[in-house]
Design a protein that fits this description.
The protein has eight helices and no strands. Helix 6 runs antiparallel to helix 7 and helix 7 runs antiparallel to helix 8. The protein has one domain. It is an all-alpha fold and 184 residues long.
């Protein structure tokens, strides 16, 4: 943790800006439940497929179980409780200060980026850049250590890729079974 605090203090010295202090407390919520839930609902509305809604709810529940299970198992305190520098977060919408590791905002941002990149591969760089930016806002605001953000990004990406792989594998098995004349 010591190296992370030193890195955060170093970064705070050169990247702090009054404009970012006002904007980032709002931007950081692109990875929050306030955005994930409408994302799930909008995905269902746009596709008009109940199975999409079910799959996204399962993925969201899985991601939530993993991230909050790890948070409460590890119990890493937030940097704001250790770091003497004031957090810009107080200027933005409310924040529940659960344990720090891993970053749920980053996890959800990478979950949504991975889903969008799967559907629109041409724009994957943009989706992952936005997710990475959301992760960086968590460090900028002093509410997460860099390793919290890295772990959140890796988990969000990895769990979503694994979920997509499993969904596709199940779909292939079902179609093989449906086309097999001996199964009828």
């Amino acid at each position: 943790m010591a190296w992370e605090l030193k890195w955060m203090e170093w970064g705070h010295a050169w990247w702090t800006s009054p404009v970012l202090d006002q904007v980032l407390p709002w931007v950081t919520h692109l990875g929050s439940h306030v955005v994930v839930i409408p994302f799930v609902i909008l995905s269902w509305v746009l596709t008009r497929q109940k199975k999409i809604l079910g799959r996204l709810v399962i993925l969201y529940a899985l991601q939530s179980a993993v991230v909050y299970g790890l948070k409460y198992l590890i119990q890493r305190p937030r940097p704001a409780t250790l770091w003497a520098l004031s957090s810009a977060l107080s200027r933005g919408p409310g924040e529940i200060l659960d344990p720090s590791f891993p970053s749920a905002h980053t996890l959800y941002a990478f979950m949504m980026a991975t889903l969008l990149a799967d559907c629109f591969p041409r724009y994957r760089f943009v989706f992952y850049a936005v997710a990475g930016f959301v992760g960086w806002t968590r460090i900028y605001l002093g509410v997460h250590y860099p390793t919290d953000v890295i772990a959140g990004g890796v988990l969000g990406y990895g769990l979503t890729k694994l979920f997509l792989y499993c969904i596709r594998s199940l779909s292939v098995k079902r179609s093989v079974r449906a086309s097999d004349p001996s199964s009828h």
